[in-house]
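Action item from last week, closing it out:
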Amino acid sequence: MFTFAQPHTTIFSPALAYARIGAVLISVWYCSMGWLTTIFATEGSNRWWGGPLATLIAGGALLLIWLGHWRWAARWLVLGAVALTSFFAWDFAFQPFTSLLVLTVLVVFAGWTLGIFEASIAAIAVIALGIGLIYRGYIDWAQVLSVSYVLLFLLGITWLMLQGYRRHLKELRESLGTLEQHKQQLHVLYQAVEQSPDCILIVDLQGNVIYANPAYEQRTGYLRSEVMGLPSRQVSLTGLTQAQHQEMRQTVESGKAWQDTVRNRLKNGDVVVDDVRIAPVLNTQGQVSYLVENRHDISQRLEAEDRIAHLQKHDSVTQLLNRQAVLDVLDEMLLALQSEHGPQPYVLHHDWHTLLLVEIDRYQNFEITRGRVWADALLQSFVERLRAVAPSTAKLARIRINQFAVIVPAVGQSRYAARMHAYAVAQELQEGLRMTQMTNLAEGPETVKLSCSVGFTVFPFVEDGLKSDSADHVLRRASVALSQALHQGGGQVHSYSELLDESIQRRMVVEKELLVALEDGQLQVFLQPQVDMNGRVAGAEALVRWKHPDKGMISPGEFIPVAESCGLIVPLGDWMMEQVCLLLNDPRVQEDGYGLSVNVSAVQFLQPQFVDKVRDVLQRTGAPAHQLTLEVTESLLLNDVDGAIQKMVALRALGVQFALDDFGTGYSSLAYLMRLPIQEIKLDQTFIRDLAPMSEHSVLVQALLMVASSKELRVVAEGVEQAAQAELLQAWEPSILCQGYLFSRPVLAQDWLLHPQLGKTM
C-alpha cells in the first residue's frame, strides 16, 4: 500500500538493502532498455523517445533513492514504466505481447520491493492494458489470458516467497535476539566471575588450569599467565589430600558438585583454610567437559569461631575457665565416678575430689578507690599467684568478679581424708595469696596485701532427698561454705557441713517470710521504758517484733541479721521510723512529754536519701523532731566519718537527736566521739551484766560515765536486771537512765497507749 517515504533515520535492515539494490538495478536496466529502443528505432518512429523517457523515469527513481525515499522511487519506477510501455504498446511501437511481458517483470519487481498490494494494482493495470489492446485489435484474448495466467502465477509465487522470506526473517530476528540475550548473559556471568571475591578457576579434565579470575591473583600471589596449563593441585589446591582428590573425582564424574575444607599454601608460603567447591560443567551430551573450582577463604571465620568457643568457656580478663566450664568439668568428673553396677550411683571405693571457692575480701574497695584498670591488673596478678600456689593437678576458673574456683582431683579415699586434705590446700592457698606482686602497671611494680576467704566441699556427696550428686549441687555446697566464711568477717576457711546448709536454708526461709511480713503487717512495735532514779519514765526505746501467723513470735536476733545481709533492713528501718513518728504524734505520748528512740542500721543510715526520708516522715506524721532520738552504732563511722557527720548535722538542724548505741564495744577512738553531734550514749549490756563495785567492768563504766559527763551527754544503761546494778549506776551518775527487765519488759505499743500509767512510773 501507499505510505509516506521513509526518512534518512530509517533503521537499516537486510530487506531494506535488497529493496534498494533491486530499485537501482531495475532503474539501470530500464534506462538501458530505453536507449536500446532508441538506437534501433527507425527514422520518424515513436520508439526514438524510448531512451530519453526511460532515462527521465530512471533518473527520477535514482534521485528519490539517493534522497532516502526508496519506496517512492519504486512506485515512480513502476508507474513510469507501466505508462511508457503502455504508450509504446498502444502506438504499436513494440509488439503489444512483448510489452505485456515486460510489464509482468515490473509487476514482480513491485511485489518484491513494495509488497503484494502495490503489485496487485500494477497487475490490474497490465490486465486492463491487455483488454484495451484486444479492443484495439493488436492482440487476441488468448494472449491476454496467457499473460494474465503467468502474471497471477508469478504474483502467487512471489507472495509465497515473500511469506517464507518474512517467516525466515522473523526466525532470524528471534535467533539474533536470543543470541544477543545469551551474549549479554554471558557478559554478566563473565563480569561476575571476574569481579567475584572468591578464587575461581576453570580446569580441563586433566586438572590443568585454563582460566583464573583476578581474585585468584590477588589472594594467591600467582599471575594468571603463570598458572595457565599447570595442574590445579600444583598452584591452587595444594592441600588437597589423595583421599579428597579421589572423592572429588568420583563426585564430579557422577555430575554432582564436591565440597570440603582444604588447607592450601599460597605462593609466599602462608597457609590458609579454604572452603572449596568443585562443580562439573556438562556438554550438550550430558558429559563432563570442564571443572569449575571455587575457593572461599574461611581462615578468619574459623579464627572467630575458635575465639567465640574460647570465650564461651573462658574468662576474658584472666583467661581462666568460666562458670559454665567449671560445671562441665564437675559433670565429667562425676560421670567418671558413676558405677555401672548395682543400685548405688558411685562405687564403694573411689577417689574424692574437692572444689574450693576463693574470694578476694573487700575487692570492691580496691575497684572504687583505684579504678577498673588497676583492679583488672590486680586480678591478673592474683591469677598468676594463684597458679603458682595451687596444686599442679588443679583446674582454675573465675566464676565471679572476685571469686575463683579451684578443682583438685583425688584428694582422698574417704570423705574425712578428703576434707582434711582440702582444708590443708585451702590454708596453703590463703597463706600463699596474702601478697601479690603487680608488675603489669604503667606506673611501676606494686605489692598488694590481700585477704581471702575460702569455702570448700568434697564430692561426690549425695545429699538427702537426691539420688546422685551433680555439678550444680557441688557448686552450691561450696558457695554455702564460702558464704559462711564471709559471714564470719572474711579471711576465714570454712568447709561445707549439713548443719551449715540447714542454717543457710533457714536464713533463706527467714528472708522470704520477712518480705511477706513487711507486706502483710506481721511486724509490731514494742516499747521498753527508760527510767530515772526516781522510777519515772523519761523515755522509751522502740523495738521491732515479728509475730508470725504460724510460728508465733520470732526473735529479733534471728531475723535482724538476715534483714541486714539481704538489704531488707532498709525498708524495715523505714517502716519503724514511720511507726515511731506516728506514736510521737499521738496525744497520749505528747501528754507525757517523753521522747522515743529507734535503732538505725549502718546500711540504712548510709543510704544517700536517708536525710530526705527522715525529713519527709516528720512532715507527713507531724511528729516533734526534738522527741525523736536515732540510735546509731560506731560501725557506720568505719567507712566515711565525714559523710556520717554531715548527715547527723543536717538532721540536728531539724531537731532530731542522736544516741551512740553499744558505746564502748566498737573500734572508733574518742577523737571520733568528740566530733560526733550526739546527745546520748548507751552503755552496752555486756558491761552491766557482771557489774560489781570492785570489778573490771565497774572501772570501765565509771570511765565512760566521766567521758559522758565531760561532754554533757545523757547516759542510758541497757540490760539492767538487778536492783543492785541500778543502785550502783545511780550512785555513780544520778542522772543516768536505766533500761532493762528490772523495770519492764518490752510492751506492745498499743497496750502502752491503752495503759497511761506505763508511761509515767515503773
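Closing note: The CA atoms of residues 203 and 209 lie 4 Å apart.
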